[in-house]
C-alpha cells in the first residue's frame, strides 16, 4: 500500500466510511474518558456551575461520543437545552439521548456541520475533541528540514515525504520551532482553525476546550501521536481499528484563560475532599454516595491524569 501523509490517513482512519468512530460500540467500547461514569457526573456538575455563572441556558457538546456527558448534564440540570454533535446519527446513540436533547451529525475531524450556527446563551464544550482533529505530522530530516511524515495505512510504517511549507511551516516556526534531526512536530494549525470556526458559530456565550495538551516551552521532542484499542495502548496504524490522538498545542488556540483542570474545577466548586466521617454513622447511604463523588472529583484533579488536562476558555459577545 502506498504511503500518504499522516493527516490524510488519520482522517480516513477515524472518520471514513469504516472509520474507528463509526463503530457501533462508540468510543466507550475501547476506552474511558472523564465524561463516563462518576467522573462524568462530577464534570457535568462543574459545567452546569459554569453555565449558571454566565446565565447561559444551553450546552452544546462537540464530540459528544454517544451522549454520555449529555446524560449527566440532564441529570444535574434538566432545564438546560442540550445539543450533541458527533459523526453518528441520533438513532445510533445506544444509551438514548435525554428528553428534548438535540443532535447534529458532523462529518468528523475539523469540519463542523453547517447547521450548527447562531448559538446564543450557550456553553460550548469541546471535551477531547481537538486531540482527534487530524493534523500535520512532521519530522526534521538530517539536514534540518521539516518534512511531512508519510505512513502506510496497513502497517503503520513511516517515511519522510515533502518539506512542510506555507501556513503549516509558518505555524511550526512560530509555535514549535526545531531544527534538530529526528524531532517531530504535530502542526496545530488545523486545530486552531477548527476552534476558530467553532467560536464563529457562537454569538453569545462561553466556549471551553478541554484536552490533553502542552504549551510553548513544553513541546515534546518526539511528538505525542498515540493509538488505543480496547483499553490498551497500541502502535499507531491508520487502518480504522484504533483511536488515533495527539495532544493539543492549547496555548495557540484563541482564548481568554488557559488553566489546568485542577484549577478550573476547584474554581467551580470541585475539591475532592473526603466527606465527614460522622455522616457514615448518621446516614450510611448518603456517606457512600458522597464518597463516590469525592473519589471521582479526586480522579478529575489528580496529577499525572485528568488533572493535567488544560482548559482553554473563551468568552464571546
Helix content: 25-40%
Kindly report how far apart the N and C termini lie: 49 Å
Instruction: State the order of secondary-structure elements, H for helix, E for strand.
Output: EHHEHEEEEEEHEHEEEEEEEHHHE
Structural class: alpha/beta
- Number of discrete helical segments: 8
**Shape field:** globular
Q: Which sheet architecture does the biggest sheet show?
A: 7 strands, mixed
List how many beta strands DSSP finds: 17
Work out the radius of gyration. Answer: 20 Å
CATH topology of the domain at 17-132 and 187-219 and 229-267 and 294-316: Rossmann fold
Known CATH architecture of the domain at 17-132 and 187-219 and 229-267 and 294-316: 3-Layer(aba) Sandwich
How are the strands of the largest sheet arranged?
A: 4-3-2-5-10-17-16
Write down the CATH class of the domain at 17-132 and 187-219 and 229-267 and 294-316: Alpha Beta
Low-confidence stretches: none
Average pLDDT rating: 91
Proportion in β-strands: 15-25%
Amino acid at each position: 500500500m502506498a504511503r500518504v501523509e499522516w493527516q490524510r490517513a488519520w482522517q480516513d482512519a477515524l472518520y471514513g466510511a469504516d472509520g474507528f468512530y463509526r463503530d457501533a460500540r462508540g468510543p466507550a467500547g475501547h476506552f474511558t474518558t472523564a465524561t463516563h461514569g462518576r467522573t462524568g457526573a462530577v464534570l457535568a456538575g462543574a459545567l452546569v456551575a459554569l453555565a449558571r455563572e454566565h446565565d447561559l441556558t444551553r450546552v452544546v457538546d462537540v464530540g459528544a461520543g454517544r451522549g454520555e456527558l449529555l446524560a449527566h448534564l440532564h441529570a444535574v440540570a434538566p432545564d438546560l437545552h442540550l445539543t450533541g454533535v458527533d459523526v453518528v446519527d441520533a438513532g445510533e446513540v445506544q444509551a438514548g439521548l435525554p428528553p428534548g436533547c438535540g443532535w447534529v451529525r458532523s462529518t468528523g475531524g475539523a469540519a463542523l456541520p453547517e447547521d450548527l450556527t447562531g448559538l446564543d446563551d450557550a456553553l460550548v464544550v469541546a471535551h477531547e475533541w481537538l486531540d482527534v482533529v487530524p493534523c500535520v505530522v512532521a519530522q526534521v530530516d538530517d539536514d534540518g528540514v521539516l518534512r511531512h511524515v508519510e505512513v502506510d495505512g496497513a502497517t503503520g510504517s513511516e517515511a519522510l515525504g515533502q518539506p512542510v511549507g506555507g501556513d503549516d511551516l509558518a505555524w511550526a516556526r512560530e509555535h514549535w520551532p526545531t531544527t534538530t534531526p529526528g524531532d517531530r512536530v504535530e502542526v496545530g494549525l488545523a486545530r486552531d482553525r477548527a476552534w476558530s470556526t467553532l467560536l464563529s458559530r457562537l454569538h453569545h456565550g462561553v466556549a471551553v476546550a478541554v484536552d490533553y495538551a502542552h504549551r510553548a516551552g513544553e513541546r515534546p521532542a518526539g511528538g505525542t501521536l498515540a493509538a488505543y484499542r480496547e483499553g490498551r495502548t497500541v502502535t499507531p496504524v491508520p487502518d480504522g481499528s484504533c483511536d488515533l490522538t495527539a495532544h493539543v498545542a492549547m496555548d495557540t488556540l484563541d482564548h481568554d484563560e488557559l488553566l489546568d483542570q485542577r484549577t478550573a474545577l476547584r474554581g467551580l466548586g470541585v475539591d475532592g475532599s473526603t466527606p465527614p466521617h460522622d455522616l457514615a454513622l448518621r446516614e450510611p447511604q448518603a456517606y457512600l454516595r458522597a464518597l463516590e463523588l469525592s473519589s471521582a472529583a479526586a480522579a478529575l484533579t489528580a496529577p499525572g491524569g485528568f488533572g493535567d488536562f488544560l482548559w482553554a476558555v473563551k468568552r464571546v459577545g
